[in-house]
Specification:
The chain is about 70% helix and about 0% strand. The chain has helices spanning about 20-35, 50-70, 75-105, 110-125, 135-155, 165-185, 190-215, 225-230, 230-235.
Length: about 240
């Protein structure tokens, strides 16, 4: 929110609902952990159940209205607009992700489409209290393509096994949305970049320290047999599905 008598250029970094403190931090932490852990032995396993992915994304989409709209801390027009731009960005990113997937690979997958949904949600989060519908459409349209390209770079160019694409979707999306605040003139570049750099550095240091602390207490990776058999059976003694019964 603006300081009394102030203007957007006179305040610190704007992050309405967590693009920096949630999505950037989660994305960077996931990337660092993925690099230290190393890749899975089998990286070609397809999504377990695309239908469940769709259901989960739908629930997440609805839930996102809660913390974006709720970040207004009032049931007023500002909260309504935050929910509106959240919805528009998510829908637009879903479509542009699917379209870009169709252009690049000849097919648009349902899992890809809902990944685009999350990209749009993450990207609009820091700006959801400041932008209008047209700006939300722009953010969502770019996010669907940008985050998909980030997934390609992380997986195939850098060969980092970020299993759920946390950095490419949440991290890149949150960083992108934060910078769009400055691009639209709703905050200064110094403030937005400064916030990203400071929080990013803090996240990297704390994540690395926590990894070392946890590694001193328990192994970070399971052995090869446990990984091959699956954690459900090896760790919990049960399977998610028993197809023989």
């Amino acid at each position: 929110m603006l300081a009394e008598g102030g203007s957007p250029g006179e305040i610190g970094g704007r992050d309405f609902a967590g693009g920096i403190v949630v999505h950037e931090t989660a994305g960077l932490a996931a990337l660092i952990i993925a690099v230290i852990l190393g890749p899975r032995r089998n990286r070609t396993t397809p999504p377990h159940n695309p239908g469940f992915v769709m259901i989960g994304a739908a629930m997440l989409w609805v839930g996102w209205f809660g913390f974006n709209g709720g970040s207004q801390l009032a049931a007023d027009g500002g909260a309504a607009m935050a929910m509106t731009v959240t919805h528009l960005s998510a829908a637009t990113a879903s479509l542009t992700w699917a379209l870009w997937e169709k252009i690049r690979f000849g097919k648009a997958s349902m899992v890809g489409l809902v990944t685009g949904t999350i990209a749009g949600l993450a990207s609009i989060t820091p700006a959801s209290g400041f932008v209008g519908p047209v700006q939300a459409l722009i953010i969502g349209a770019v996010a669907g393509v940008l985050c998909q390209e980030a997934v390609f770079v992380i997986r195939n160019k850098l060969n980092i096994d970020d299993t759920l694409d946390v950095f490419a979707v949440h991290g890149v999306g949150g960083i992108f949305g934060t910078l769009m605040i400055a691009l639209f003139g709703l905050g200064t570049w110094a403030a937005q970049l400064g916030g990203l750099v400071i929080v990013g550095a803090f996240t990297a240091v704390v994540t690395f320290v926590l990894i070392k602390v946890v590694a001193a207490i328990t192994p970070l990776r399971v052995d090869a047999e446990t990984e091959t058999n699956g954690l459900d059976l090896s760790v919990h003694g049960e399977r998610a599905y028993d197809m023989s019964s």
